[in-house]
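Step 1: inspect the first sequence and its tokens.
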Amino acid sequence: MKRLFRSISLLVTIVFALALLASMAVIYISPAKIHFLALSGFLFPALWVVNLLLLLIHIARKSPRFLLPLIVLALSWNQWNNVFRLSGEKSPEDMNRPLKVISYNTRMFDYYEWSDQQNTPEAIYEYLRAENPDIICFQEYFTSNRKEGYLPNQTRARFRALGYQHIEYLYDNGQGTGYGIATFSRYPIVNKGSLPFRDSKNMAIFTDLNVDGKIIRVFNNHLESIGFKENDFNVIDSLKFEMDEQQRQGIKQIVNKMSRAFRQRSSQAEILSRHINNSPYPVIVCGDFNDTPISYVYRTMRGDLKDAFRESGSGMGGTYNGRLPSLRIDYIFHDPAFNSYDFKRHKIEYSDHYPVSTIIEMNPGKKE
């Protein structure tokens, strides 16, 4: 019996170690080549914790098998730091040229009242006014002449204090209204451009800002969404061990949607990565990537940049506010020459995303 137990224990340890390594492989393999592998990245946090538990169990039992989970945990330590941070670094009092940056997918400022809250656009504005950012990157920016609170002049007036705006509508309904993406800045805009994606409802823009004589380029990105509908969530909620035909068809549709989104996001990330790498100025990269830190998209988009969450975030930092488990899919990256502090995920319930913010120090160690 003891021999059987040891054999099962060894098998379980090997399986979970290999599963953790496989879940890390997704960051190196484009979903355009093997799309189903991208799903394993979602399992990484759970697999890491299981391997940690196995390590502790084997150590407690004084079993040499502790070496296997120890090795895979060590190999995955850098990726774990993308997922979880114990505590964030606070900003020093004497920062040189700090910029407060917020990135927020507003879900059209709750135009269809998904949040079941009243006067959401004004509530979002009050939150942002209290935060007093220097730069705001909006995804799913939306204005309409059909409903009070969403008029384009009203929306722009709310952020008049920032002074400068770059708005690009993917769908323009005329008279300056539509659906798109926007960057608002306290500093002058000296150049701007849009980066629409092929066959997509998503896009990116870049905005060059003159910050006290120094030009920086801000990329504001909204990568491909999966596009789950209410019926898809109902299928997930109703799953049982034995599925009927309707559920099987529902699962097939969900997998097809995810596969399409994985492939398109990988292509979009590669395009954006080239633009970021070719920028003539230091960059700040914000947006809703619709993918986790254990993904090909994250690795491609980040490149050599710093992730503000890794620099000063805490916890898991989940930014998705929906019916699936909270995942970190909204990011702020920045030039490695900059420092960032006070990364926060703001738990306000006005959208299916939580806004994220950080304070970026452009010239660390230098005094004016």
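Step 2: inspect the second sequence and its tokens, then contrast the two.
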Amino acid sequence: MQTLTERTQAGMAAVLSGDARGWRSRLLFAGPAIIASVAYIDPGNYATNIQAGAGYGYRLLWVVVLANLIAMLFQALSARLGIVTGRNLAEISRDHLPRPLVWVMWGISEVAAMATDLAEFLGGAIGLSLLFGLPLMVGMAITAIVTYAILIFEGRGFRPMELIIGAMVGVIGLCYLAEVLIAPVDWAAAGIGMMTPSLPDSAALTIAVGIIGATVMPHAIYLHSGLTQSRAAVRGDADRRKLLRFSNTEVVLALAVAGMVNLAMVMMAASAFHQGHSDVAEIETAYHTLTPLLGAAAAGIFLTSLIASGISSSVVGTMAGQMIMQGFLHFRVPIWLRRLVTMVPAFAVIAAGVNATDALVMSQVVLSIALPVPMLALLYFSSRRDVMGDFRIGPVLRVLATLGACTVLSLNFVLLADTFGVPIPFLP
């Protein structure tokens, strides 16, 4: 992975030794969770959140809350694995699991990476196409060029990348703060929706699984362990405990912001579309419908956030894909080639005439089905004393993580049953 400058490393060492204190010093450790949080506000979230809000109002907000809590737990565990072992999840899987299983995990992870890239590329391209009146393929080409340009900063160290991605996350957050202020949100209904689980029908189930897939991302679980594995030089367990405290705080804050953005997306769609426009299911339709309903400013802000989301998440997805391949195979390809290989399916889908928003939603379902692989692997290794030593997770965390993994597995099982026509008793 990328390196930090000597100045940043010296500053971290001063904090760990107790020579430097204060919140500004702790900011040196911020970055990994911010990078990972981009995966939770990528264009796939836009597609599923618009469908959730337009079709079901505030009734699926609880899914967003649940997904975000599961994400916090597993991103914290991923960061913990990297900090304690100095290795990432893909590397540890390669070292400790049977070779056939490693190949299967790598294959599933590559499929997930392509599904991720599909969502990211399409989101950025749709935003550029609508904002500037460009053909969708031209928007995809521009997204590719901008992504390559940002990835150039990888050679200058890790901190510039963190600052760029952090700025884009800030743009997305500010955009949706503005959207919530513009849209007439029913806050009472939103509060009930966050706390009252319900799945009105099988279509709601598909969207719920899509929300899970768009929120808890396989590549983000792999990536976070890689971002923390050699970020700071540690001299012993005392330093590791400090790093874990800093990391856990950053995970909660960064993913809380991502969660609030997702909630805002659903609430905006519920407010603008559910009454009278519940059939809105595509990003393009949402944009064109927002203009007469909430004004040109709301529509423009929506597209600005979508473009920032598509570009930033595309960069992060490439970083994750590179780390996954290197970890599983001990094989590294040039970053430009990695970018090229994973974006080809996105161009192929559009060239074949597939509806862009439908492709976005289905990509999130694919991600949700791939998600149990890194979740179960992370839970397994986090619980092993020979891997984690005294930092292995305790019974409470094991129970919570197991419940989170079981929730995702159960939703996926029900989705597959519904897809293949197997009757599901609790769904109408």
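Step 3: confirm your contrast with the notes below.
The CA atoms of residues 383 and 395 lie 9 Å apart. The chain is about 80% helix and 0% strand.
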